């Protein structure tokens, strides 16, 4: 049997106040499992009066009689170093410390004397401090130690007549929390036990009928397990009684922002008006450390930044909320930059320059007012009956945007948010929000539908399928009509978030690490914005007034710096699209489409598309790579001219001057001598760059013509292969 037992052979355990009650049962149990035990007890009265060696001696005798090893110690825990010294003198080491000694001086608050106060703090709190202080360096040195502090439900909840005692017991929780943090690096674990047991301390407090059920022996195994080397628990408070044990934790509400912006102050009335939200515990959660607590605060402050703080939420009824959102030209420009619009694309200047004659918003921007309404909403936390929804565990599942009215370049909007349905998907709840946005005259401008997946909030007995969610559309089975790429920058999320989605998951490495990501992830709506911008280039000649609706489903996260490939299929006025990450091949947006009023393919769109030159995207990729690692490119030390052919004719030239290094469209600039000329078709070039066509084989088959310094071209091969691994 002993093979299955959790043993303490070779361990030295110090139990304070082990002459009676709980401490005695701890000492007996540890000794019965092989530990050498220091039985400490002052042997005084219940109120801390007097002293005697009898209590400790009796328990030592009991242990010895049962074949165990124990030694008595009669010091007060206030002199904790002496207690630990007894362990060292007798057994040469100490592994486990149970701070259990305690007394009571119960009085109603008004009657507590200084002495009543000081004595209680000294025995409980200072006693635990002194013994732990003496043991801690020994634990550290041997890289092992277990400490149990003894708190009480009086400390956790308060109890009439125990102000001195509950203050000391609550103090022990604070001590435990910090010792757990400071000790964890050295395998020192510190936990609290909150017992309820029959002892001389409780004989006149607990009702007689349950007193007999509360045997201290039923708690001792919980304490012993917490002290075993196999137990990883650290920094916890364990409530235990009558053969039951449970963990106690603090919870914090989602709270409320009390002011409209960073520059605004807080009035007492602001506090009053927000009070119900301050104390609403529906979405409350446990914060596991002070860093998480600070991050939460920073997150709240982020929401106050310009553009978010000027909005206010008012609740119309229990199921509808109205949110006001003000935007101006600068906001539209910031959004356009966030989704990759660039002045280098002539047609995109109108999204970036407020004095442009056709200055207009990208339609994707109009998801922002809906997202803000959702952020400020109180509806989410109570969306699933009987389930707490943690806002951090919500994923953006699907998005639908329908443009109904004219989109202006500035204005004040009013969004009405409601929950249309909540579906029970087992592993979580799918919450479908409807957000209808109106102008100041009350004219409906656009509608958003947001489907959010609340992980872990499923199995509430709700319907599995619904009727409200706008369906996604399967892509056609043929090859895409157009395929465009956009390489996101490392700062893409940092820029996009300024359009109003300040979730720190997209910027704070600590938080994204908590979420299990290698670095902060890109906003799904940023990939959505990039994809729809490219679609507008290819099929709407950048005329944003042609957009009627956009639908997409978010499948996988994207990391800033990755390249997005947007494949598009035209089906009448519907453009199906699917977006994937080039570097991983994983689809990130699926089942998606843009509905246009009419299709207007642009010359540029064709040029950028598969129907035109796909190799443009690869050269763009090479340009970025050369900029990123110029030394690597320079090591090739050559100048190349690429003739890209289509249907046998040269349709474009690119110069790769790796001596400088610089890559640009067109023939070599005056004064630059081309050393190697490569002639290849658009399609074969893409095949080679994506590793699907071996350059040697292409050369042998005559698909790749190289003139001039052929050896140099071979040097370039590996560079292109590794660098342009698309
Ligand atoms: P107990 O009175 O049976 O045992 C406490 C022991 O501590 C006594 O033998 C006493 O002589 C010893 N002691 C007192 N002051 C000391 C000092 N300065 N130095 C060394 N030893 C000293 O009480 P019980 O119920 O076993 O309590 C053990 C611990 O559990 C205490 O810290 C108590 O506050 C705590 N507790 C007990 C609860 C219960 O339901 N029994 C409820 C909540 C907490």
Please give a handful of descriptors for the protein shown.
726 residues; alpha/beta; Rossmann fold; Thiol Ester Dehydrase, Chain A; 4 domains; 11-stranded antiparallel β-sheet; 8-stranded mixed β-sheet; elongated
User: How many structural domains?
Assistant: 4
- What's the overall average pLDDT, rounded? 88
Strand order in the largest sheet: 9-10-12-13-14-11-16-19-18-17-15
Helix content: 25-40%
> In the CATH hierarchy, what is the architecture of the largest domain at level 2?
3-Layer(aba) Sandwich
Low-confidence stretches: 306-318, 603-611, 722-726
Q: Which ligands accompany this protein?
A: 1,4-dihydronicotinamide adenine dinucleotide
- Cα-based radius of gyration, to the nearest Å: 35 Å
Report the count of strand segments. 24
Structural topology:
Blueprint: E1 12-15, H1 21-32, E2 36-40, H2 54-65, E3 69-73, H3 80-91, E4 96-99, H4 114-142, E5 145-150, H5 153-157, H6 163-183, E6 188-196, H7 208-211, H8 220-226, E7 237-241, E8 244-248, H9 268-278, H10 290-303, E9 313-315, E10 320-327, H11 329-338, H12 368-376, E11 394-403, E12 411-424, E13 428-438, E14 444-455, E15 482-487, H13 492-496, H14 509-514, H15 524-539, E16 547-554, E17 563-571, E18 574-581, E19 587-596, H16 603-608, H17 615-628, H18 630-634, E20 639-646, E21 649-657, E22 662-665, E23 676-681, H19 682-689, H20 695-700, E24 704-708, H21 710-723
Helix pairs in contact: 1-8, 3-4, 4-6
């Amino acid at each position: 049997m002993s093979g299955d037992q959790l043993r303490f052979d070779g361990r030295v355990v110090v139990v304070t106040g082990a002459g009676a009650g709980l401490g005695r049962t701890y000492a007996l149990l540890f000794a019965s499992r092989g530990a050498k035990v220091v039985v400490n007890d002052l042997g005084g009265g219940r109120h801390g009066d007097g002293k005697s060696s009898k209590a400790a001696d009796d328990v030592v005798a009991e242990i010895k009689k049962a074949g165990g090893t124990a030694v008595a110690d009669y010091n007060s825990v206030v002199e904790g170093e002496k207690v630990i010294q007894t362990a060292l003198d007798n057994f040469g080491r100490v592994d486990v410390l149970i701070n259990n000694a305690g007394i009571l001086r119960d009085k109603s608050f008004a009657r507590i004397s200084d002495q009543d106060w000081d004595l209680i703090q000294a025995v409980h709190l200072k006693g635990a401090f002194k013994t732990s202080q003496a043991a801690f360096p020994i634990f550290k040195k041997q890289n092992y130690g277990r400490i149990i502090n003894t708190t009480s439900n009086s400390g956790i909840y308060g109890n009439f007549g125990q102000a001195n005692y509950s203050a000391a017991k609550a103090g022990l929780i604070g001590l435990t929390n910090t010792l757990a943090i400071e000790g964890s690096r050295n395998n020192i674990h510190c936990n609290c036990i909150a017992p309820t047991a029959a002892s001389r301390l409780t004989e006149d407090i607990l009702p007689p009928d349950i007193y007999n059920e509360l045997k201290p022996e039923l708690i001792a195994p919980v304490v012993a397990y917490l002290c075993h080397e196999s137990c990883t628990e650290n920094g916890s408070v364990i409530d235990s009684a009558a053969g039951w044990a449970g963990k106690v934790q603090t919870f914090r509400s989602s709270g409320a922002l009390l002011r409209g912006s960073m520059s605004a102050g807080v009035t007492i009335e602001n506090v009053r008006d927000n009070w119900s939200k301050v104390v609403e515990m529906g979405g409350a959660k446990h914060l596991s450390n002070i860093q998480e607590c600070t991050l939460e605060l920073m997150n709240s402050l982020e929401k106050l930044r310009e553009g978010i703080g000027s909005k206010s939420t008012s609740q119309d009824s229990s199921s509808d909320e109205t949110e006001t959102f003000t935007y101006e030209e600068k906001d539209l420009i910031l959004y356009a930059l966030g989704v990759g619009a660039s002045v280098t694309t002539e047609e995109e200047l109108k999204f970036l320059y407020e004095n442009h004659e056709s200055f207009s918003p990208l339609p994707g921007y109009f998801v922002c007012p809906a997202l803000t309404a959702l952020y400020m909403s109180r509806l989410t936390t109570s969306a699933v009956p009987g389930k707490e929804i943690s806002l951090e565990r919500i994923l953006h599942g699907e998005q639908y945007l329908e443009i109904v009215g004219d989109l202006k370049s500035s204005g004040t909007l009013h969004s009405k948010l409601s929950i249309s349905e909540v579906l029970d998907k087992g592993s979580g709840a799918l919450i479908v929000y409807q957000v209808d946005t109106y102008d100041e005259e009350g004219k409906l401008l656009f509608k958003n539908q947001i489907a959010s997946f609340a992980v872990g909030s499923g199995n509430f007995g709700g319907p599995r399928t619904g009727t409200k969610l706008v369906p996604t559309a399967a892509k056609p089975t043929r090859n895409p009509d157009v395929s465009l790429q956009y390489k996101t920058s490392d700062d893409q999320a940092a820029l996009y978030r300024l359009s109003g989605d300040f979730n720190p998951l997209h910027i704070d490495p600590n938080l994204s690490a908590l979420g299990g990501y290698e670095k902060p992830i890109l906003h799904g709506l940023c990939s959505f914005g990039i994809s729809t911008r490219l679609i507008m280039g290819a099929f709407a000649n950048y005329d944003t007034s042609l957009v009627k609706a956009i639908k997409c489903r978010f499948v996988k996260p994207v990391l800033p710096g990755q390249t997005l490939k947007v494949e598009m299929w035209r089906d009448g006025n519907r453009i199906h699209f699917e977006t994937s990450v080039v570097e991983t091949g994983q689809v990130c947006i699926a089942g998606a489409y843009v509905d246009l009023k009419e299709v207007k393919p642009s010359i540029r769109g064709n040029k950028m598309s598969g129907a035109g030159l796909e190799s443009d995207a690869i050269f763009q990729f090479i340009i970025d790579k050369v900029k990123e690692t110029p030394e690597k490119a320079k090591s090739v030390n050559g100048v190349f001219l690429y003739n890209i052919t289509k249907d046998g004719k040269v349709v474009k030239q690119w110069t790769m001057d790796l001596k400088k290094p610089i890559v640009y469209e067109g023939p070599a600039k005056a004064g630059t001598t081309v050393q190697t000329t490569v002639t290849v078709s658009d399609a074969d070039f893409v095949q080679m760059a994506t590793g699907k066509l071996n350059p040697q084989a292409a050369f042998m088959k005559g698909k790749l013509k190289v003139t001039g310094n052929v050896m140099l071209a071979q040097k370039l091969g590996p560079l292109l292969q590794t660098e342009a691994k698309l």
